[in-house]
Amino acid sequence: MQKASGSRNPKVSGLPIGIFDSGLGGLTVVRAVRRLMPSERIIYLGDTARVPYGTKSPATVVRFAHEDMQFLMRHRVKAVVVACNTVSAWALEELVKTYNLPVFGVIVPGAMAAAAATQTGRIGVIGTSATIRSQAYERIIHSANPSAIVHARACPLLVPLVEEGWVKRDVTQQVIADYIRPLLQKRIDTLVLGCTHYPLLAPVIRIVAGRNVRLIDSAQSCAGYVKAELRQLGLLNASRSRGWIQLNVTDEVERFAEVAKRFLGQPAGKVRRVDLSEV
Ligand code: DGL
Question: Which end of the chain, N or C, is more open, meaning fewer C-beta atoms within 10 Å of its C-beta?
């Protein structure tokens, strides 16, 4: 399940949307949400002190996810977007059951977009070790397209490269080529970027994969999905004025603020350092 029905009170629609990730990758979702829903207010949490989640055990990912949710709940958000594939893979169902508001993940929209995009039925998925181990993409793609053949590959080196800002280095292209070559040899026509950090690498992935492979950006698919769901729940912000973003991280703010500004294409405003153990 990707959502739970929360309050349908229209007064709630002016409240912010909470978005969280283990680090800066979730900014790809923030950017996509801003583009599609410019009047929405966004409270973002990047758990930069504990990134990466993708190498952790499922139990640890679930525990961290609850702490992230509780932070956002304290800020009175109307809905939460889990902008992390790893958390979406391992914790989403539990979050949906636990919290009384709509909670959306990134995997269903990305998987559905891939199932719709493929012409040959051969789909590649790349993600963190935890996401790939969960087989969540396979399950959802197969539910939409039972004859699809999914080739999945964990790419654990990519998140550290993105967090380091090495998105254009030759070494990064080399690593990407090593990871996705086996998928290309299987003649995939669609490749799911099954990690919210990977859209930052999309230009390099595009060079390596070539023009004939359709790239599915789970952040973009997610934003479209969230918009449709919020509309259906009567929770879209109807205001004509532009919304805002409040960025929170659990570790140093300086480097995050710099990357966020470059990435979001607008001043990130004040980035706050927060302690998730504080109530
Ligand atoms: N944002 C995470 C994801 O989409 C990747 C970073 C991490 O491993 O925590 O899976």
Answer: C
